[in-house]
Design brief:
This protein is an alpha/beta fold. The structure holds uridine-5'-diphosphate (UDP) and magnesium ion (MG).
Length: 322
Amino acid sequence: MKAKIKLSLVVPCYNEEDNVELFFEEVKKCFQEKMESYEFVFVNDGSKDQTMKKLRKIYGENTQDHIKIIGFSRNFGKEAAIYAGMKQAVGEYTTVIDADLQQRPEVVLSMVEILDKEEAYDCVAAFQDKRKEGKVLSFFKKAFYKIINLVADTRFVSGASDFRTFRSNMREAILSMSEYHRFSKGIFSWVGFETKYIPYDVQERNAGTSKWSFRKLYKYAIDGIVSFSIAPLKLAMYVGTLAAFLAVVYMFLVVLQKMILGIDVPGHATVVTLILFMGGVQLFFLGVLGEYISKMYIQVKNRPIYLTRETYGIDDKEEADT
Ligand code: UDP
Ligand code: MG
C-alpha cells in the first residue's frame, strides 16, 4: 500500500545537470516540517548532458524520499515531459515546476496553503509580476497575448506560466486531453476549473541557459494560436468576401468611366499589382491551411506523445499503458 501523498512535484528537466541536485536540496530544505508528504516526479526530457546520471544518483542516495524518474528516449519537449510526469503523479495536489530554480519552492508552499484554505479554487497559478527580459521580447509576448485572446475562445492570462498547483480532479482533466500538440497554457485554461492567479518574482536561472530562442518562441506562438483557435481559417472567408466586393465595385467604376466620361482605362499597372496582391493573399491562406492540416496529419498518425527509455520508482504496470 502506498502512503497517501499530499503533493506531487512534476519537474521537466532538459540539460539541467548543474541544477537538479541543488533543486532537490532546496525543495527538501524548504518543505522540511512544512509539507506532510510529497513526491518528486522528475522527467528527463532526453538531456544531452549528465542530467540522467545526476537524477539516478539522487534516486540512489535518497531512499527515504518519494522519488520517481522518467527518462525519455529523446527530447520530446517540455509539454510532453509535463504530461508524462503528471501521469505518474499521485498526490492530492500536483505542482508543475522548472528545475532551474527560477521558480522558488516557497511559492509552492503558499500555493498549497491557498488550496488548503480556499475550497473554491482548484488551481493556483503564478504569473510573472515584473518580466525580467528585454523590451523587444516583452513587446512580442504582450502582442501574442493580445492576439490569442482576440481569436481564441479560451482565456489566456498574460505572464502566466506553467508554474501552478492544482487538485487531482484538474490533473485528471488535463490528462484526459491526449492531443499531440500540447500547448499547456491553453490546455490549463481550456479544462476550466477555478484558478487563482498569484504574482511571483522570477529568479535568475541557477545554471545553464534558457532553451527558448526567438525562433522557438515564434513557433510556439503559432502553435498556440493554431491549437486553440480556428479564426485564421475563417479569416480567409472574410478577406475573400471583401476582395470580391471591392472587385465588383471597381468593375462598375470602370464601366461607368468608359460609358459616361469616355475615358479608356489603361489598366496594366493595376492588373499587375492586383494579380500579385491576390496571389500573395491566396498563398498566405494556403499556408494557414497547411498549418492546420499538418497538425491534423500528425494527430491522425496517433503517435505517442513521448517514449520512455528508463524509469525509477515507477511500477512497470503503470508505465506499460502509456
Ligand atoms: N525543458 C524541457 N524540455 C525542453 C525544454 C525545456 O523539459 O525541451 C524544461 C527545462 O529543463 C526547465 C523548464 O522546461 O526545467 C523550463 O525551461 P527554460 O528554463 O529553458 O525556460 P524559461 O524558464 O526560460 O522559460
Ligand atoms: Mg527557466
